[in-house]
Amino acid sequence: MSHVVVIEDEGTVRDVLRFHLERAGLKVSAFENTRDADEALREADALVLDWMLPGESGLSFLRRLRADQELRRLPVLMLTARAAEAERVEGLETGADDYLTKPFSAAELVARVRALLRRSQPETPQHLGNGPLSIDMAAAEATIGPKRLNLTRREFDLLAFLTQNAGRVYSRTELLDRVWGADFLGGERTVDQHITQLRSHLGDEPSRPAFLETVRGKGYRMRVHQEAQREKAGGSEP
């Protein structure tokens, strides 16, 4: 689930922003000033930032954000009541990725935030690999060595997602959101069932999995094989 931070000092506007973004299936952390938002920004996928803020203006904060090595690439949608072209240009030149003038519709807000999130996400590679596991995204095929795996579309999507993000733990809720989509009405048991089916295809033993590992109390992750670790590091061992 993508995480959006909102910094807006007007409580009513802040609540409206939170409501519509959460309704669109996004995780939202909302703050009335820049100071309180610092920790949440480290885990954010996008920022919705008001221009006029107490203490430090949104424009001043944006300058600091773009100078921060960790946050300089965070997508930013700036909100303002200022409609003059010169002011819009100033916001964009300071580092805003997009600009929305108040008042605005909920549909336009959500569409612009989603567009920022899409542009900021890396493209899925055409081929994924992890040890003997190979995935051809274009052909929607997965193999273990010479053996082709007979997967359903959802099994393939789940396997590809976990392989692309090997080493990272995902909760059942996160997997439902990222693989099935926010509109899916099924429950977390669906994820467990698909993991069980994938383990059968992969020849995984649940007690000693070579690929799909259960992390107690947290969720699932794809184990990174040594060959993939060396490739990620940029070379093989001597």
Topology:
Blueprint: E1 3-7, H1 11-23, E2 27-31, H2 38-41, E3 46-50, H3 58-67, E4 76-80, H4 85-94, E5 98-101, H5 106-120, E6 127-130, E7 133-136, E8 141-144, E9 147-148, H6 153-164, H7 172-180, H8 189-202, E10 212-215, E11 219-222, H9 226-233
Parallel strand pairs: 1-2, 1-3, 3-4, 4-5
Antiparallel strand pairs: 6-7, 7-8, 8-9, 10-11
- Supply the CATH class of the largest domain: Alpha Beta
Total number of strands: 11
> What shape does the CA trace take?
elongated
CATH-level-4 superfamily name of the largest domain: Response regulator
Order of helices and strands: EHEHEHEHEHEEEEHHHEEH
End-to-end separation in angstroms reads 40 Å
CATH architecture of the largest domain: 3-Layer(aba) Sandwich
Helical run tally: 9
Largest β sheet strand count, sense and barrel closure:
5 strands, parallel
- Secondary-structure-based class equals alpha/beta
In round numbers, the mean pLDDT is: 85
Summarize the structure in words:
Keywords: DNA-binding, Phosphoprotein, Transcription, Transcription regulation. The protein has nine helices and eleven strands. With 238 residues, the protein is of the alpha/beta class. It has a five-stranded parallel sheet with strand order 2-1-3-4-5, sandwiched between helices. The chain has a four-stranded antiparallel sheet with strand order 6-7-8-9, with helices on one face. Strand 4 (76-80), helix 4 and strand 5 (98-101) form a beta-alpha-beta unit. Helix 6 packs across helix 7 and helix 6 (153-164) crosses helix 8 (189-202). The radius of gyration is 21 Å and the shape is elongated. The two termini are 40 Å apart. Mean pLDDT is 85; it is low at 228-238.
